Structure formats: structure tokens, C-alpha cells
Amino acid sequence: MTAPVPVTEPEPAGLAGRIEELRELKRRIHQGPDAAATERQHAKGKLTAYERIDLLLDPGTFTEVESLRRHRATGFGLEAMRPHSDGVVTGWGEVNGRTVFVYAHDFRVFGGALGEAHAGKIHKIMDMALAAGAPLVSLNDGAGARIQEGVSALAGYGGIFQRNTRASGVIPQISVMLGPCAGGAAYSPALTDFVFAVRGTSQMFITGPDVVAAVTGEEVTHEGLGGADVHGGVSGTAHFVYDDEESCLAEVRYLLSMLPANNRELPPVVPAADPPDRRLDGVRDLVPLDGNRAYDVREVIAEIVDDGELLEVHADWARNLVCAFARLDGHVVGVVASQPAMLAGVLDIEASEKGARFVQFCDAFTIPLLTLVDVPGFLPGVRQEHDGIIRRGAKLLYAYCNATVPRVSVVLRKAYGGAYIVMDSRSIGADLALVWPGNEIAVMGADAAADVIFRREIAAADDPAATRARKIEEYRERLVHPYYAAEHGLVDDVIDPAETRAVLVRAFAMLRHKDAALPHRKHGNPPQ
């Protein structure tokens, strides 16, 4: 008996043609509505949505979702304009081999304006990112809500805001501003963890220059009202500012390399070529013993961390406090440091809010915290008091007290008053509090303390200046010498500055599996 001969079904008539039709359709979607639209985008110094995604993701890893979607709106001529993609490109790919979700407004289609179908695509990709436990990057270049669709477009923004909030502290969310972002659309980036902006093209504002002029009489340009440098250095809305899209997207990739995929994973570890026990023989020359002399704390951070590399957050805003990501022996740490080169390193409203936000992010994503302290106190002044330094300074205090990640603080030189307590002192929960031998930890500086305590005695003395000098030295010897805090159990050790890196590497290795739990609660109520 012979075996039956298998029958090969013929290819359905026209299938090859349909496949070619599909390829041509997707090619046209990728190219945009017409060549002129792409040329206009390039003429503004801007890339297309697909070009941006190609720069962000590893080559050949992007998988697009819902590229064929079209709106179903009618009226105002919309029924005659139904381009595929509906002005937003959504999907996922990889950055350094790790999954990342992305959506990118396509300004060539409806000016990137958000309609109901457009919003539905964004909602879907946000839901996918949260379900997959992977970071979400939005490439923003849109004209706001699609006016022709009315309230349906506005409701689309509501769905985005709700998902931003639900994903907060669960997956990293990064907004990249590559064009205009006005009105309610600006709130989505503000709800995300980090905002990147590009000079000359990025703009964010709630009401535009025309409305501002009509209501207040103030004349201002788009760039002057909500440009990249305004939000990077004045409002603090943008965390990173760059000159072009290529360098901006390269830094987004670098930031992602420092972050975990979600709040259930640890940040990625890389092999460290920098010896963990490397001595910092030059660090003593960076920090003057005289507490009135300034220095750049970023140089100290660079000495401590792997290969001198750090990614500073909010580099141009609240510059009296430095916040940065870096690595110690290949492990990511978040660094918060007083900056004596700016306002002598005092804490003020903006520095407190900057530090609080950074500490909260690190705590949410299990990034250990290293705090370098050289703080003379909170900035005094009527404006600071009236603008709420008490409640806004308390944000930093709350963030540290609430943080359960490994926390190590090092007093480099001085730490006075309430600012010392706030900057992750042991009394608010630092796991290890270390100091350099030149430190001064006290309620206030010896000069000011002597003027308060010995005011009458100095005034009655035959030689007030000599008496004051003697009393200052007396106070310093009794309460401000480097070992007073250690003798009273307020710090864990006084260390040689040259051994700081080695001590910190060992400390964070010991704390790597720290287990700390907060009381059961729905959520706290931090000061606003």
C-alpha cells in the first residue's frame, strides 16, 4: 500500500497582492502624509516621530501597535481627513537590551493634536507598559487637544492623567519635550518622573503668550514664557535641557541605563573597573577646612563615585543642592549634596522641593541614597518665610523620614541647625552617619552662638572684642569640635576623607538587603 501524496493547497488568489498592499500602506504611514510635511519638520530643526524612536531604541527592536488606527469623528471636515496612525506612533522596543514602551506624537498628522482615537492608542500603550512592568517614554510634539472633536479630546487627556498617576512609583515615566505643549496637555509631563527639553523647540505653558498679554498686559515670547531654559532654570519643571534632539535622546538612554524596569526590581548593575577601595588622596584639597570658603561639591562626588561619572538632575535649578545618579562599585546610588559654591549651600524653598522629589523617586525605585552634607542652615528672609519655607522645607524632611532604602550620610565640613537634621541625619533614620574630621555639627556656628550665650558678658567687658574671641573659642572647644557628635552617639564614625569611597562601598554592600517596613496605611499626607 502506497502512502498518500500530501495535497498542497494553492495560495488564495490575490493574497500576495494583499501582502504587498499592506507593505505599501505601512510604508506610506511611515513616510507621513506627504514629503512636504517631513521637510517642514526638518526645517524647524525637528525630527519625525519615527526618526526619534530610531534614536531612542536599539536598532531593529521597535514593534509598533495600532499603526492602522483612524479616527471616526465627523464634522468640520474631519470625515474627509482620516489618516492612519491618527497622529501618534505607539509601541515598544529595547534600550540596551531592556524593554521600554514609547509613544511619539507625529506633528505631520493633525499637528500631533490629540483626538479620541489618538488618546485611545496612548491609553493602550500606557496600560501595556504598566502590565509588563517596563519604563514608559513619551516623545511630546503636539498641538494640544483636537478642537474639532470637542470634549471627547479633553476626556482623552483625563485618561492619560489617570494612568500617569496610577503608574507613579511603579514604573519609571519619562517625558521628552520636542515641540509645543500647551494647556492641559502640559500636566501629563508634570506628572511623570523626569522631563527632558530641547532648546529652541520645546515649549510648555498653561496659557500662551497671546492670552497672557490679553489678561495681564505682559508681553512675552513663546520661548520666554515656557522655553527649555525657563523650565530648566526658573520653574524647575524640566529636569534635563539639551541643545539638540540627538544629544537629548542619547541622555534619555543613559538615564534608563541607571533605572530599574519597575519598583519590584533593582537597578541594573554593571561591572566596575574602578577599584572599590581606591583612596581619594586628592579629596582633602577639594574641601577647604575654613567653613567660609566655597568649593564645588560635584568635584567631591566625582572623586567618590565610579570613574568620576554622574548624571546630575535639575542641574540649572536650585543649584545650592546637587542631586545626581552615579554608581559605586557598579551599583546605582542617588546622591544628594549641599553645594557650597552656590548660596554657601543653604537650604531654601527650591532646594528643599528639588531634594524631596529626588529622594521620593529613589525610595520608590529602591535606589540607595548617599547624602553629602555641608549646610549652614536654612536661608533666612521675609520672602522665604512668606512663601512657605516651613511647609515646603518640610517636604525634604518628610521624604527622608519616609524613605526605607539604604541611607548613608557624610558630613564633609559643617552641619548647623535644623538643616543638619533635615539632611538625613541619624536622628531621622540614616542607617549610617559618617563625618570627616574637620566637621562642625552644632545648633549654629560658634560666632553666632557666642553672641547669643555671652551677649551681656561681652557687652560689659573692658575689651569686648577680646572677650568675644575668647568665648567663641570656648564654645567651639566644648560643643563644635569634630568628635563631640561621635562621643554622644550622634554619628557612627569619624573617617579619613581618603577612605570615603572604600567605606561607602562596604556600607552599601552591607545594606543591600535592608528590610524596613512602614506602618500599614493607604498613603501618607506629605506637606504641600
TrEMBL record:
Q: What is this protein called?
A: Methylmalonyl-CoA carboxyltransferase
Q: What are the TM regions of this chain, as residue ranges?
A: none
Question: What are the alphabetically sorted keywords of the record?
Answer: Transferase
One of this protein's Pfam families, by short name? Carboxyl_trans
Sequence ranges assigned to domain CoA carboxyltransferase N-terminal in this UniProt record: 12-271
**Gene Ontology CC terms:** acetyl-CoA carboxylase complex
Species the sequence originates in? Spongiactinospora rosea
GO MF annotations in UniProt: propionyl-CoA carboxylase activity; transferase activity
Any idea where the CoA carboxyltransferase C-terminal domain is?
275-522
Q: Where is the signal peptide?
A: none
